[in-house]
Amino acid sequence: DGGITQSPKYLFRKEGQNVTLSCEQNLNHDAMYWYRQDPGQGLRLIYYSQIVNDFQKGDIAEGYSVSREKKESFPLTVTSAQKNPTAFYLCASSSDRGTQYFGPGTRLLVL
Amino acid sequence: GDSVTQMEGPVTLSEEAFLTINCTYTATGYPSLFWYVQYPGEGLQLLLKATKADDKGSNKGFEATYRKETTSFHLEKGSVQVSDSAVYFCAPMDSSYKLIFGSGTRLLVRP
Q: B40: exposed, middle or buried (C-beta count within 10 Å: 0-12, 13-18, 19+)?
């Protein structure tokens, strides 16, 4: 089955801790995206990557970092600099400038 | 900049009622237009799309027509079911091939 997987489903972060959210796709898509969703809100773009070893900041990149070493994988690290990390994080992928398909999401909570 | 406006929710309907969720956008040129649906605790699922003026996207009884003259992409369904209860997002794609999200419209269908 082709698709996008995100893990874990729930993640807890302690003060001052960096945490990494996983996103994997087997759709052979070149582009991948990370979004943040706050309760009752739409999605805001954090980072995106259109090709391996390259990525760009989205609208709210501060306090986050990414890497794109493999086509299938686009992990997101929420650093300690992100002061309000509690949110629902969604990963998406697309073929060249095409429709974006989303994963099931990771809910990040702060202890 | 590019933006999207959806009707405020929640929209509450009885089963088998007719649904309209309004969506208007501002964008450079003629962007592709998408409707996504989000069920509680899940990621976004593509519902339908249209890539050029006068195109009609349709899926699972939902329809939306790309109206260039009114920059609108209203979502309709002739007879809603309880299982259609979800949040619906209209999302134009900007000139950089990024999706623009509003706050979404929550639909609640009562038996």
A: exposed
Q: What's the token pair of residue A101? A: 């398909």
What span, in angstroms and rounded, lies between the C-alpha atoms of A60 and B27?
Answer: 21
CB A84 within 8 A of CB A62: no
For B84, the 3-state DSSP assignment is: helix
Partners of B77 in beta bridges: B19, B62
DSSP label of B82? G
**Identity of the residue in A41, A99, A102 whose CB atom sits nearest the CB atom of B103:** A41
Whether the bond between B31 and the residue before it is cis, its omega within 30 degrees of 0, is no
Question: B102 and A44: CB-CB below 8 Å?
Answer: no
CB contact under 8 A, B36 and A102: yes
Q: Would you tell me how many other CB atoms lie within 10 Å of the CB of residue A51?
A: 12
What are the tens digits of pLDDT across the range A23-71? Answer: 999 999 999 999 999 988 889 999 999 999 999 999 999 999 999 999 9
